[in-house]
Amino acid sequence: xxxxxxxxxxxxxxxxxxxxxxxxxxxxxxxxxxxxxxxxxxxxxxxxxxxxxxxxxxxxxxxxxxxxxxxxxxxxxxxxxxxxxxxxxxxxxxxxxxxxxxxxxxxxxxxxxxxxxxxxxxxxxxxxxxxxxxxxxxxxxxxxxxxxx
Length: 149
Fold this sequence. Notes:
Elements: H1 2-21, H2 28-44, H3 46-53, E1 54-60, E2 68-69, H4 71-75, E3 87-96, E4 102-112, E5 117-128, E6 134-144
């Protein structure tokens, strides 16, 4: 009889352990990667920052433009020496797939020029690489009125 209780307890313990290990990964890593990319944009420019965190399969969606397909095509789409450093963004939310391999973030961006400030929303799809780093695989956004937050 004791063996029966030990066996039942062991099965419940194993199932509980498996459930604890199968929880979805935290989106905090994506939030950090997204914020780091925004901070980098202030230093080296918007497009250069995206390029530095882009996966080889990166897709850039732009307002009124066809998608740019691939990291190399994106790298050839802008002047690396004349990149704007006045675009910043802040993630509002991120989620990660239970597998831990894909996730997304979305939030608000702001672009300051000498006489005008523009606002918008963005969404970025992230892929976790084998080395544990998150890389952008798709990024796009749109313009919005001032969010008045």
